[in-house]
Specification:
Blueprint lengths: L1 H13 L5 E12 L9 E18 L3 E6 L4 E6 L12 H13 L6 E8 L9 H16 L6 H15 L7 H8 L4 E6 L4 E6 L5 E7 L9 H17 L17 H7 L2 H26 L2 H17 L6 H11 L4 E7 L6 E7 L3 H11 L9 E5 L6 E3 L1
Parallel strand pairs: 3-5
Antiparallel strand pairs: 1-2, 1-12, 2-5, 2-6, 3-4, 6-7, 8-10, 8-11, 9-10
Helix pairs in contact: 2-3, 2-4, 3-4, 3-5, 4-5, 6-8, 8-9
Length: 385
């Protein structure tokens, strides 16, 4: 129904049907968090929840944008691109349009209706979907295209520069490059990606939204980035072969411990061991070994909780509940942490009991209300006729 809602919503807002609709998928990262901005490895999938941008080109040099989620509208003049400070979501839109203008794309005016079923702030890459969806819509109106990598790079720059969010490349590249039926193994240092068959057998991916909202533009995320940068700045002058944390192998953690304080050692330990888990998880997918994959997910969460300290009480409780349900192979937080969602891998027969356990043991004890839903892999952003 989201597509029908987009078509009807656009016509209610602007009085005419849209010319086209862009679908930009959300993202679930199966494993590999807080490794993308350190040049490391990640293994996300695009999911069958998406942001939709219904669009119509106009001859007026203005982009009129309406967000159905926030029930807010903004008009952005192509000659004087400015976001509305009272509508933070408009920074992503204005940023993308500004960067396309800098690249001398002959943009047309447009009417954009933005909606969909990705929960903002839930750790499912709603901001990347917004950036990519708007970029594809504006490029389509200008009869211009960008490669998946170039498009992802532009959208990441928009988020960093205009939303002041120090994000990595994972979300944007997954949104522009994913394929249904596959996970996307990304080497974020070299911007190299490989599609890994999603061999899950009868297992199902289950998202548990904690109801606790986060923002990766917040203090915690930025602090972790600074800590990783500080660790690299300390060890690089001592060993010039270490140009990113990706260059540190597990047998070099003892070297790091000699030169870093305990806090930075734990941050580096997470990044190093998480990179190793991503490679092991990709192999497990290739082999269809869901039990091994699940164990790696659980180990990943423990590392994010203890070494990187980006979990929270609510996420940890959900992991604890999930681990007690028979048929759940593993679970971990997904995304930046500090709230948001958990991704669990479970047998099909365990999905119902898992949902019941969450409702009984979580929703009755926390102010936030968790929602549980299954997801499937999906294709990258595209224009729907």
């Amino acid at each position: 129904m989201p597509l029908q809602e987009a078509l009807a919503g656009f016509e209610r807002r602007f009085g005419n049907p849209p010319d086209y609709v862009v679908r930009a998928p959300g993202r679930v990262n199966l494993i590999g968090d807080h490794t993308d901005y350190t040049g490391g490895l990640v293994l996300p999938i695009a999911i069958d929840r998406a942001l939709l941008v219904a669009a119509r080109a106009t001859d007026e040099p203005v982009v009129a944008v309406y967000s159905a989620h926030f029930d807010q509208g903004v008009r952005i003049a192509l000659g004087a691109l400015k976001a509305d400070p009272d509508q933070p979501w408009s920074r992503y839109v204005a940023g993308v349009i500004t960067l396309l203008t800098r690249q001398e794309v002959a943009l047309r005016g447009a009417q954009l209706w933005i909606g969909g079923d990705i929960p903002p702030g839930g750790g499912l890459a709603s901001s990347a979907a917004l950036e990519v969806g708007v970029a594809v819509a504006m490029l389509h109106a200008a009869n211009t295209k960008r490669s998946p990598t170039a498009l992802a790079t532009l959208c990441r720059q928009a988020e960093q520069e205009f939303a002041k969010s120090p994000c990595g490349i994972m979300d944007q590249l997954c949104c522009t490059s994913a394929k249904a039926g596959y996970a996307l193994l990304i080497d974020c240092g070299g911007m190299i990606s490989e599609h890994i068959p999603l061999n899950l057998g009868d297992a199902t991916l289950v998202v548990i939204d904690s109801g606790v909202r986060h923002s990766i533009a917040g203090v915690g995320y930025a602090t972790r980035r600074r800590e990783c940068s500080a660790a690299l700045a300390t060890v690089n002058p001592i060993d010039r072969s270490i140009t990113s944390l990706r260059d540190i192998t597990e047998d070099r953690l003892a070297f790091c411990a000699e030169h870093l304080d305990d806090n930075l050692v734990r941050r580096v330990k997470h990044v190093v061991t998480e990179n190793a888990r991503v490679l092991a998880a990709a192999d497990a997918l290739r082999d269809g070994d869901v039990q091994h994959f699940g164990r790696l997910m659980t180990e990943s969460h423990a590392s994010l909780r203890d070494d990187f300290e980006v979990s929270c009480t609510e996420l940890d409780e959900i992991i604890s509940i999930a681990s007690g349900v028979e048929g759940v192979y593993g679970a971990r937080l997904t995304g930046g942490g500090f709230g948001g969602c958990v991704i669990a891998l479970a047998s099909s027969n365990a999905v119902g009991p898992l949902e019941s356990a969450i409702h009984e043991s979580y929703n009755d004890h926390y102010d936030a209300t968790a929602s549980v839903f299954t997801v499937r892999s999906a294709d990258a952003a595209c224009v729907l006729s």
